[in-house]
Amino acid sequence: MFMHFRPALAALILMTLITGVAYPLSVTAVAQLAFADQANGSLVRDAAGQVRGSNLLAQPFAGSEWFQPRPSAGDYATVASGASNLAPSNPELAEKVREFASQWGGTAERPVPIELVTTSGSGLDPHLSVDAARFQAARVAAARGVPQERLNDLIDALKVTPLVGPAVVNVLALNLALADNPRPDPDE
């Protein structure tokens, strides 16, 4: 009887070693050698070497002196990432959009960019369009006491044009650039 199970057991052990050990180790080795930064989470560090976040994940910022990312259906938690799954015809989505637009102070003359009032598919989108970042520039400039043109220049310096789609700005990179350039001294 064992002679019938022996080939099946040998195949199971062999395939377990190949697909459960050798393949994952080889993929990890290639990722660490060729793409170490991406394989380790695209972590962003400040001047002191402290991890401040990831280029791949949005995070909230408290205070009007910071640029804000898109709203998150999962409150920026990576475990609960995901969309709200509300259809465009759902009245709850329309109410949330109105609520977010009201929080941003949107008007008919100055409409709020769509990504500031809707969540992304993952709820963790780290980028904003250039228009959405500029929409916030007046508020951030007023809170920091800096000219809005300076922030617009910073947005332009940090914008990235992907292979497909419009130019975007990473919110974490933008806020870290602001943290590296403290507010001007009012006595100067």
Salient structural properties:
188 residues, mainly alpha, 2 domains, two-stranded antiparallel sheet
Describe the structure.
With 188 residues, this protein is mainly alpha-helical. It has two domains: 2-36; 41-180, no CATH class. It is 46% helix and 7% strand. It has helices at 2-34, 36-39, 91-104, 130-144, 148-158, 171-180; strands spanning 43-45, 51-54, 127-129, 168-170. Strands 1-2 form a two-stranded antiparallel ribbon. Strands 3-4 form a two-stranded antiparallel sheet. A hairpin with a 5-residue loop joins strand 1 and strand 2 (51-54). The longest helix is centred in the N-terminal third of the chain and has 33 residues, at 2-34.
The shape is elongated
- Please summarize the sheet with the most strands: 2 strands, antiparallel
Which stretches of 5+ consecutive residues score pLDDT under 50? none
- Total domain count: 2
H and E order: HHEEHEHHEH
Cα(first) to Cα(last) distance is 91 Å
Helical percentage: 40-55%
User: What's the tally of helices?
Assistant: 6
Subcellular location: Cell membrane
Protein name: Potassium-transporting ATPase KdpC subunit
GO molecular function: ATP binding; hydrolase activity; P-type potassium transmembrane transporter activity
Membrane topology: Single-pass membrane protein
